[in-house]
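Workshop exercise sheet. Pairs work together: one partner reads the sequence aloud, the other fills in the structure field after running the prediction. Swap roles for the next sheet.
Pair: D.N. / O.F.
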Amino acid sequence: MQALTFDIRSWRWIACKALGTLRREVYFSRLSGLRLREVPEPELPGPQWVRLRTILGGVCGTDLGLILQRNHPASLLRSFSSFPFVLGHENVAVIDQVGPAVTGWQVGQRVCVESSLSCSVRGITPPCRECQAGRFALCENFLDGHLPRGTMLGMNSFTGGSWAPYFVAHASQLHAVPERLSDSAAVLVDPLACALHGVLRHRPADDQRVLVQGGGIIGLGVVACLRALGCAAQVTALVRHAHQGEQMMEAGADECIVTPRSDSNARRYDRVATAVGGRRVPAGFGNQALLGGYHVVYDCVGTGASLTDAMKFTRPRGTTVLLGTSQITVVDTTPLWFSELTVLGAYGREMEQVDRRPARHTYRLVFDLMQSAKLKTARFPIQTYPLRDYQRALRAAASRGRTRAVKIAFAHPPA
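Structure field:
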């Protein structure tokens, strides 16, 4: 079968990074770590595993960050991955083969696979303290068990990923897709679950002011999930492009600030200060500060600059929540100390408790919100491409300001 694989060595990384600053096409060339190649269909690693036929494989910002080499080569994410790997963890798929010890699942069922390769997947008993608490994405055993190292589907050398016609998963990772949900809605479950998890990490009060920074699917998901949970807080969105502002308003934001990349720091801070009733304070070398700010800021971008801004846009003793994939970078930590902030990370999905109800997996919560029409996925249209057009698909994903893409996915034809 043909699959999109990734593997890059030190000298290639350096050469590609140097040339990629001049021409982005280098990241999709033979010099890069990305390849469309023939690989064998994956075998079941054990009796409790299933093989899946991919319907749609989503392109995540984390995938794009790897391909465009936005992460430092010394990133700890590389230490928890085994190479080469078939990319793709966002998925909707059909069970194609069932292991002899699998119960409750049948060939032909449509599922979404939760990506964490935690203790149950690795056959580790007793599970670690994080898995016992239902926090599978924070598992302490990603390097252990009878499987190679790897934190998630699509970033390891043995499961494959959804950027291929077939991949494998442990039965504990499967979540049945409700019959009424379309494939296009189902492939959004993982990014929307990440957004919902971020909201549940710190749920703002109804009388607070909230800033959502970033106009991609995670930022849109945060706004939509706040409203789906009944949050009445005043929500402002901060985005780069006018069409992202329109999408944010449709998702439930009260107002939107559009600041193109051409805007100076001073202009961007002035716009935020005006919206929140604060005051911009200029510093040296173009650096800016803000007096006042929002009770809660969700950073859905994940760069050093965005985290710095997010903390500066947070009012004293407020909370900054980082949802964007983080990296080795330069961050101004002055506001963390100077404004006595709380900074929270939000990664992955887990067993979540909402309104004192029994804990449920984040995927199940998203499915329920979709089925009740509280979370309207029609607001998040996707664009699909065949795998052979991967370069065009990834260019579209990397140029959302031009393409207006909310989610890019690879569509695999039926077997």
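Discussion prompt: The chain has a mean pLDDT of 94. What would you look at next?
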